[in-house]
Amino acid sequence: MPDHPALPTAPTSPASPTVPTLPTLRGLGVCAGTAAGPVARMGRPPVMPAARAVVDTDLELSIVRLALKTLAADLAERAAGVSGQARDILDALSMMADDPLLAETVEQHVTSGVDAAHALARAIDDQAALLREGGGYLAERAADLEDLRDRAVATVLGVPMPGIPDPGHPFVLVADDLAPADTATLDPASVLALVTVRGGPTSHTAILARALGIPAVVAVPGALTLDDGTLISVDGTAGTIRVGVDPGEVSRPRRRAVQEIEPGRTKDGHPVPLLLNIGSAQDIRSDAEGVGLLRTEFLFLGRNDAPSVEEQRAAYGQIFGAFPGKKVVIRTLDAGADKPLPFLALPAEENPALGIRGLRTSRLLPDVLEDQLAAIALAASDTEARVWVMAPMVATAAEAARFAERARSHGLTTVGVMVEIPSAALQARRILEHVDFLSIGTNDLGQYTMAADRQDGRLADLLDPWQPALLELVAACARAGRDLGKPVGVCGEAAADPDLAAVLVGMGISTLSMAAAGVPAVAANLAEHTQAQCRDLAAAVLAAGSPQEARAQIPHPRL
User: Which of 157, 183, 213 is a domain's end point?
Assistant: First the structure.
């Protein structure tokens, strides 16, 4: 019995009219692969009715409270059914819906005579506007709030929730942008590919498309001109959408299988460990070679005080224990003005992406870092994992030296830093005189190199990981590591691009870290190239003058 209803097809008799081929649409490919199928556009937000006079304030208040409570519970229930980044996103949305400050603001609007639907919309829009002014990560949170607004208003009005359509057959999902709650629950057995008007290489859409292995193209200006049912072909490698394809090209859905993670190595046997980026114990894969980025923010979210040393020790120990004898690279808390956490109580900043964040929070709150380092050291001593620790947002050799001294004072023996700022890449050699390894976060490094907000889809082309300036900085770090005999890894989304992975290895990058779904394709591509071939690819790509020219150096692009 087939898993899905048959896809719609056009008549194939000679008398059938020729399907017209419209111009190719172009955007930014953020998840490699190709798929073709009928368009289904995202469900639109609810239409706000005209404001009405409030007759019964108590009734209106009860409607608001019930709507927020229902929404928070629904999001929490959906979070419980998924794992990894999807769970983190839905948990965060649920906490927003359950925020007492939001409820208080909405109730103030109601008591002043505003009806429930408009009170919710005004309160959430005001909060979203404040976050959007902050730019960077805060702007991404604003998009989350706007999604929450639409869901809350739909709940009050009793209309269908905005979100993923269900046409009854597999489809290519087309949207202005995808809300976090939607991207978190996409079914890859139904959604053949993703196309959005907005978004960038590090948006929710991009990150979760990679995690699910769904071909995706973002920053496509004309996407919403496509009508439901139009047959299109999406190339997530080249970033193109062909409109009006032949029905014979339509892809068939495949069940998402958990693929075994194979060790990474080149065709001639050079080992390239392919490690995981994980955010909590939910993401553990015991068959992985190790962990290249363990984010620790999951322990600190939604709290008014920091977790104790013992609480952190237990949480880290659970993850370390799943990787006996394997490397686990843990990143200290990456939060601050651009990623606000209540317990930090940091003042608002005009430009939070350039302010107190990452390692810089220890300038104001040194005990938070000291407690975390103590907990990591204790958890490491409890298990057989090879624990490496690194700090985010390091800008200078002096900062690297101070962090290394503090980490080693707790008994942590392998200490490194993330390269996310161009100054750190340019000073890689000096930094490596103080630490044992570097890990390049290509998402932030690209943002700061190109002075382009990673959440602004209009600038998505500048955030392409094939940008020559970004790759030159990565190569400089790799050279410094090779000259000093110290490992340099990449833990940004660039590592999950199979073609770019071979280029990075050719530069001298020693490890690649990514979401588990990206490992099989990267491993397969590396196995097709010798180390010498990887070096030749790297030389050709580094000589290119644009991302397009760089990609053209790959002799057989992976489709």
Answer: 157
Task: List, for residues 176-214, the tens digit of each pLDDT value.
Answer: 888 766 766 678 888 999 999 988 776 767 877 877 778
Residue 35 burial (10 A CB sphere; 0-12, 13-18, 19+): buried
The residue behind tokens 């204790």 is 378
Domain count, the chain: 3
CA 428 to chain centre: 26
Q: Are 352 and 307 within one domain? A: yes
Mean pLDDT of 231-247: 89
Assign 556 a pLDDT band (cuts: 50, 70, 90): low
What pLDDT, on the 0 to 100 scale, is given for residue 32? 75
| C-alpha–C-alpha distance, residues 307 and 297, integer Å | 11
Token pair 């419209």 in the structure block, residue: 22
Handedness of CA 415, 418, 423, 429 (dihedral sign): positive
Q: Please tell me the pTM assigned to this model.
A: 0.74
| Contact of 8 with 229, CB cutoff 8 Å | yes
Q: CA 137 to CA 455: how far, in whole Å?
A: 7
Is residue 257 a part of any domain in this protein? no
149 shares its domain with 287: no
The residue segments making up the domain with residue 245 are: 22-44+163-249
Catalytic amino acids? 204, 491
pLDDT value, residue 423 = 98
Report residue 111 CA to chain centroid gap. 40
Based on its alpha-carbon atoms, the radius of gyration of the chain, rounded to whole angstroms, reads 24
Q: What is the number of other CB atoms lying within 10 angstroms of the CB of residue 9? A: 11
Q: Indicate if 306 and 364 belong to the same structural domain.
A: yes
- Please, are residues 521 and 261 in contact by the beta-carbon 8 Å criterion? no
d(CA 140, CA 93): 12
d(CA 551, CA 64): 52
CB atoms within 10 A of CB 448: 21
Place of tokens 């889809």: 457
Residue where one domain finishes, among candidates 126, 142, 157:
157
Query: CATH code at 99?
Result: 1.10.274.10
> Mean per-residue pLDDT for 453-480?
89
Same domain, 210 and 242: yes
Longest dimension (CA), the chain: 80
pLDDT of the residue at 258: 57
pLDDT for the residue 248? 86
Residue 19 has a pLDDT of 43
Give which of 142, 130, 27 is closest to 459, Cα–Cα.
27
> What confidence tens digit (pLDDT) does each residue in 152-172 have?
998 899 887 787 887 889 999
Six-digit token string for 102: 């939001």
pLDDT at 160: 77
